[in-house]
Amino acid sequence: MTNKLAVFDFDSTLMDGETLEFFARELGIGEKVKAITDRAMKGEADFFESLTERVALLKGLPLAKVDEICHNLPLMNGAYEVVKGLKEKGYKVVCFSGGFRTATEYFGGKLGLDGEFANILHSKDGLLTGQVGGEMMFNDSKGQMLKRLQKLLDVTKDNTIAVGDGANDLSMFKYAGTRVAFCAKPIVKENADIIIEEKDLSFILNYID
Questions:
Q1: pTM (predicted TM-score)
Q2: Mean pLDDT, to the nearest integer, of 168-180?
Q3: Which of 9, 38, 67, 140 is catalytic?
């Protein structure tokens, strides 16, 4: 049996929005954080620098509020359907997120994902310190993790699907035979095989055998 792998971005792909912006609104700095996010997703700023800059602005946010926000994020239309449909076609379905495990672990369980890789917000005494670490900190993190997963699971590039919307998703496109730009920035569309403009992930199933 051929091993197959589908990898999804989380923010603005599996989930309808940007986790960091939900946090920022709680602190009244939504527009400031959104401006930094937009630059990074368009490829106009280094991902590591923009991530650490945005997380630093969250210093003092209570961890209980972080959990509450992360567990109430709005999933994208068709998220359940696309995961179920791909698994029925024999795919392992995984999430790579430049966001945070507090969200991906929770929704990974709800969606039935086979794995999720993300970053971790550092906290002390129940408050965010403004620091972050983890598996998805850099522009090429998703590509490097995909390459390692392919080797671990014995999956070829031709049997790999990558789905994303922002510039930090391009690194995984490099190792995927099928590259899906979902409601994506222009730089991502330019490198995709499949472009979906409607906010419904189940449309992906129309293109997958």
A1: 0.95
A2: 97
A3: 9
